[in-house]
């Protein structure tokens, strides 16, 4: 079922279609099954505000899935949650291992460069994952998954402007137990899950071991190699220790190792008149005729590939998380969250996606991060106060080799080597207070100050064979620059390189952010609220800069978010209606824009990050869930997003073939923000009934997303005053039908076995997942997963 490493590292469990179908997608995805209050919707306790609270009693938009919902069936990966959770879009990004493009309420980011901070944070057991890569690995046993929409600038580790996906893994149990799942589905996909709990040992420690395995052949077909491709294999294992030396002290420590082996796959979307690779189809060094202008083919030809080289992916990740809670008194609790992650990855990619040698890269990277958070929670009669501090340190190195074919190499092949070192540190202090003014009225105030420090070294990429003519000792990593030219033969002019000192940069970025909300309980089970929050995404440096003019720094961007909402249960808590209206002001938005490269650069154009735009985003979210009987439940969700630039200037005249850049910024505010579909809705029906010594579970869910754009590149030819996104970057409207039918047989004493048949994307929608036009050189894209179906066997004892 899992086609490759596309689930969050030790984050996303096998969340079931049943669980998500019966969950409340707008604020509190609570499975509408019976509890001790017969027929009522179950309460879910979350830590979205760093306190244990009922999800229906907190004045923020949060989607929550508890362990009961998560364990009731299976889901492929986090992309299947999109559409169930309003205003959430998740696409895989083929340019990096387990890379994700996650968007919440029209605020998104997909870049794999580790010098950039994610716009949506992923937090595992309180530890923030500092890059977009590594966000889509698999997990199995979760205690809880929460999706918080809107800026989370005061409580969740690093600042985020779009939202947070907050995941809590299960704790080791008091008793011995084993559970597992094994599944097989089309595309020869195999999957295994196993968790073993030792129970409490020696009265103070309990251990849990876990292991997960996935392997698939992929769903692309390579015409050049005459075989299916997209193969991926992941293996994850680890151990958790729960230590309770006393009733007042609890410590949970988890070590995990993940191993990915696979291949990167993209399809060609280059066109004649737009991309150089298709300027002369069939000519030496240019793409063959059949590999150009494929957008009019069924599903845009995305499932047919042509690369003639191997494109292996290797990624190894080790992580350690530690959570310690100490009850200092009846109303004081001290908490510590420590995290360490390191990974070593190597990714080869044929970015032009053709069978010719045009533009290929090999990226070797090493990344590490360490974080430490301390919180003190004080709970008094009228005031609940939380204060804390946060420290984050990360760094990475990138050694990238780019192979140019004879077209870009101007008559011969060439290898450009780029070396990058990047370090980032963040210090923050925060406080958050909940003040009960009466039994029905409460206000909350939060504040945080963040100080980020970043530094970078980037040699901008050099063709080593060319540099060594005048710098014989050049090692491919040092800083050099063109200081002149010489002529070794008549008619031949070559650059002279000398050591330089313009490859480094460092800067600091500080910001005060805050939030405030007011809530009023009309009666038990009915809450109205209003809130304001400010999010901050740090400035920094461009890890892919091709010259000193594109290195940076760029400055921070901020989001001011306003929201009003209603959370209400009706008819003895058998019907739930949750509504939210929001308005977001996106200021100093960081944009990647293309500009002419300075003399001596290896490319005529370069990409630079600038605070070039601002935007307004407003929307509405709604959900309804109903427990119609003991066996049947129904749920539906809806979201509307209106995202528009109100200021965006970029000199794009020179992007039109035959025209020169005039150095005058053009108004491009008519462009569309990425991954902000106007409409999303879902509707599901669920059935569960015990029969004799077993239980039958069935579910079906239909999800819809209106079309959205996956890139910010302008369409060509560029028309000043009417600039629109490249039309190859728009997805189609998507309808996705999922279903599952399962039977669980009870063996007694908590033991059980289960068998389930499942299907996803039964409508077999085929289309675009992501697209990237690259500076007029070439364009590539990736496809959504087609129809999948299979069988799963589970057991627990």
Helix content: under 10%
Beta percentage is: over 45%
3D shape: globular
Number of DSSP-assigned strands: 42
The radius of gyration over CA amounts to 27 Å
Taking pLDDT < 50 over at least 5 consecutive residues as the criterion, the unreliable ranges are: 1-37
Counting helices, strands and paired strands, the structural category is: mainly beta
Largest sheet: 22 strands, antiparallel, barrel
Count of helical segments? 3
Distance from first to last alpha carbon: 24 Å
Mean pLDDT: 87
Description of the molecule:
- The two termini are 24 Å apart.
- The strands form seven sheets. The chain has a 22-stranded antiparallel beta barrel. A five-stranded mixed sheet has the order 3-9-10-7-8. The protein has a three-stranded antiparallel sheet with strand order 4-5-6, with no helix packed on it.
- The longest helix has 5 residues, at 17-21.
- The chain has 797 residues and is an all-beta fold.
- The chain has three helices and 42 strands.
- The model is unreliable at 1-37 (pLDDT under 50).
- It is globular and about 90 Å long.
In a few lines, what is going on in this structure?
With 797 residues, this protein is mostly beta strands. It is 2% helix and 56% strand.
Q: Layout of SSEs?
A:
Blueprint: H1 17-21, E1 45-46, E2 53-54, E3 62-66, H2 67-70, E4 88-93, E5 99-104, E6 107-109, E7 120-124, E8 127-128, E9 142-149, E10 163-169, E11 176-185, E12 189-201, E13 205-216, E14 220-222, E15 227-229, E16 232-246, E17 249-263, E18 267-268, E19 304-305, E20 312-329, E21 332-350, E22 359-379, E23 383-404, E24 414-436, E25 441-458, E26 462-463, H3 464-467, E27 480-489, E28 492-499, E29 504-523, E30 526-537, E31 557-570, E32 575-596, E33 605-627, E34 632-650, E35 666-667, E36 679-691, E37 694-705, E38 734-748, E39 751-760, E40 768-774, E41 778-783, E42 788-796
Parallel strand pairs: 7-10, 14-19
Antiparallel strand pairs: 1-2, 3-9, 4-5, 5-6, 7-8, 9-10, 11-12, 11-42, 12-13, 13-16, 14-15, 16-17, 17-20, 18-41, 20-21, 21-22, 22-23, 23-24, 24-25, 24-26, 25-29, 27-28, 29-30, 30-31, 31-32, 32-33, 33-34, 34-35, 34-36, 36-37, 37-38, 38-39, 39-42, 40-41
């Amino acid at each position: 079922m899992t086609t490759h490493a596309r689930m969050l590292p030790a984050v996303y469990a096998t969340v079931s279609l049943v669980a998500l179908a019966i969950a409340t997608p707008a604020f509190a995805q609570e499975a509408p099954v019976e509890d001790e209050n017969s027929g009522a919707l179950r309460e879910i306790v979350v830590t979205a505000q760093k306190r244990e609270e009922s999800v229906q009693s907190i004045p923020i938009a949060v989607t929550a899935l508890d362990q009961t919902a998560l364990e009731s069936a299976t889901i492929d990966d986090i992309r299947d949650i999109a559409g169930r959770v309003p205003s959430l879009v998740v696409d895989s990004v083929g340019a990096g291992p387990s890379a994700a493009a996650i968007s919440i309420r029209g605020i998104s980011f997909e870049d794999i460069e580790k010098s950039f901070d994610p716009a949506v944070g992923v937090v595992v057991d309180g530890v923030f994952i500092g890059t977009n890569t590594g966000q889509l690995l698999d997990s199995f046993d979760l205690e809880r998954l929460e999706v918080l929409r809107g800026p989370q600038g005061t409580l969740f580790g690093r600042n985020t402007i779009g939202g947070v996906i907050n995941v809590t893994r299960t704790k080791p149990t008091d008793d011995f137990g084993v559970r597992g799942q094994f599944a097989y589905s089309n595309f020869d996909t195999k999957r295994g899950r196993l968790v073993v709990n030792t129970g409490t040992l020696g009265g103070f420690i309990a251990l849990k071991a876990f292991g997960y395995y996935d392997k698939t052949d992929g769903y692309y077909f390579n015409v050049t190699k005459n075989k299916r491709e997209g193969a991926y294999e992941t293996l994850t294992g680890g151990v958790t220790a729960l230590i309770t030396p006393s009733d007042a002290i609890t410590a949970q420590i988890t070590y995990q190792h993940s191993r990915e082996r696979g291949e990167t796959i993209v399809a060609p979307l280059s066109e004649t008149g737009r991309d150089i690779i298709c300027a002369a189809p069939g000519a030496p060094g240019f793409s063959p005729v059949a590999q150009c202008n494929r957008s009019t083919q069924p599903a845009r030809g995305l499932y047919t590939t042509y690369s003639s080289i191997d494109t292996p992916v290797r990624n190894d990740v080790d992580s350690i998380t530690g959570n310690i809670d100490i009850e200092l008194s009846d109303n004081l609790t001290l908490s510590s969250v420590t995290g360490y992650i390191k990974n070593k990855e190597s990714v080869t990619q044929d970015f032009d996606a053709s069978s010719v040698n045009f533009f290929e890269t090999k990226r070797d990277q090493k990344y590490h991060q360490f974080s430490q958070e301390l919180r003190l929670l004080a709970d008094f009669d009228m005031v609940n106060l939380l204060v804390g501090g946060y420290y984050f340190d990360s760094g990475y190195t990138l050694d990238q080799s780019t192979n140019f074919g004879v077209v870009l190499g101007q008559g011969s092949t060439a290898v450009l080597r780029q070396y990058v070192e990047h370090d980032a540190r963040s210090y923050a202090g925060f406080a958050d207070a909940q003040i009960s003014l009466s039994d029905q009225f409460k206000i909350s105030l939060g504040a945080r100050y963040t100080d980020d420090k970043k530094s970078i070294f980037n040699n901008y990429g050099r063709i080593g064979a060319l540099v060594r003519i005048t710098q014989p000792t050049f090692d491919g990593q040092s800083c050099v620059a063109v200081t002149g030219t010489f002529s070794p033969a008549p008619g031949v002019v070559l650059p002279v390189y000398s050591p330089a000192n313009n490859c480094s940069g460092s800067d600091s970025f500080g910001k005060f952010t805050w939030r405030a909300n007011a809530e009023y309980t009309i009666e038990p089970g009915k809450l109205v609220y209003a809130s304001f929050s400010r999010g901050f995404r740090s400035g920094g440096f461009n890890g892919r800069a091709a010259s000193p003019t594109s290195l940076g720094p760029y400055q921070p961007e901020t989001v001011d978010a306003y929201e009003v909402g209603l959370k209400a249960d009706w008819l003895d808590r058998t019907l739930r209606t949750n509504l939210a209206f929001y308005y977001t002001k996106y200021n100093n938005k960081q944009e990647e824009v293309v500009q002419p490269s300075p003399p001596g650069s290896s490319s005529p154009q370069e990409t630079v990050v600038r605070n070039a735009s601002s935007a307004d985003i407003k929307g509405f979210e709604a959900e309804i869930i109903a427990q119609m009987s003991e066996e049947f439940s129904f749920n539906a969700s809806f979201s509307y997003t209106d995202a528009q630039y109100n200021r965006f200037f970029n000199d794009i005249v020179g992007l039109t073939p035959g025209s020169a850049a005039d150095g005058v910024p053009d108004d491009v505010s008519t462009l569309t923000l990425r991954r902000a579909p106007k409409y999303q809705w879902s509707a599901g029906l669920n059935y569960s009934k015990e029969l004799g010594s077993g239980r039958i579970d069935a579910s079906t869910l239909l999800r819809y997303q209106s079309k959205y754009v996956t890139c910010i590149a302008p369409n060509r030819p560029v028309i000043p005053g009417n600039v629109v996104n490249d039309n190859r970057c728009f997805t189609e409207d998507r309808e996705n039908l999922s279903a599952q039918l399962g039977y669980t047989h009870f063996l007694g004493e908590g033991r059980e076995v289960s068998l389930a048949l499942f299907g996803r994307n039964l409508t077999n929608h085929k289309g675009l997942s992501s697209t990237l036009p690259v500076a007029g050189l070439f364009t590539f894209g990736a496809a959504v997963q087609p129809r999948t179906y299979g069988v799963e066997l589970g057991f627990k004892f």
